[in-house]
Design a protein that fits this description.
mainly alpha, globular
Length: 279
Amino acid sequence: MNIIEALILGIIQGITEFLPVSSSGHLVLLQRIFGIEEPVLLFNIMVHVGTLAAVCTVLWQDIWNILRKIIQPLTLLIIIGTIPAVIAALFIKDFIEEMHSSAAFLGFAFLITSALLVFSELFHKKLPLDKTAMEKTVKNEAAVKDRGKFNALDALVIGIFQAIAITPGISRSGATLAAGFFRGLSRDMAVRFSFLLSIPAILGALAMETLALGQTGLSGNIEAAPMITGAVSAAIVGFFSVRLMLKIVREKSLFGFAIYTGILGILVLIDCFGTQFFL
């Protein structure tokens, strides 16, 4: 992997980690297109560090409020929401690795992401007005009302959707947002909880990749310059992606992302079963 490829992959990671289009799916796709075959574990660790820094920077107030008072309902909800992904990562690790090598599965997974975004938006638009209080009330007041209504079952459902999104091509942010919409959360609380839930998810991915790196060693891994380039670009782009996503979810719909992932899924399947130009 050269610096240009690392820069592109870092930018894509920074964008897609937080937009509902699947970062893992895009990275697998680009690595196939670039023909990158050397071990990328250490590179994946570095770009995950970059995106983790980005989300922590944007949501530092939320994170500080949690750290200042660890024992609180929101902390418990985050733990509940994280458990399904931990279980999935431990018990279906081999299946996930197999899916990374399947171009056909990647195409269908992009289509699943598209369907989730469409159906969750349609469902959310039909909710009673009091469940979308953000559109009619001051933001802070809406957040308080949301936290009062947000319960353990909501967190568990969102966590199950996040666990499903461990597979490449199914967007983690898209799946958790969809689950939040299906559970009747306001757009503001759904996107904030999705991003807060991404922190332990990214930390978990870092832990697994670091463990795997310890088992395989550094032999054949990528040089320092591309890794640093990827990490820095992922952090910078990720910072703006988080801010953009917060704005989009609050003020607009996710249909644009659904169209994008739908078209991308179709193109991947056409190339997989037909042209075989890239995959």
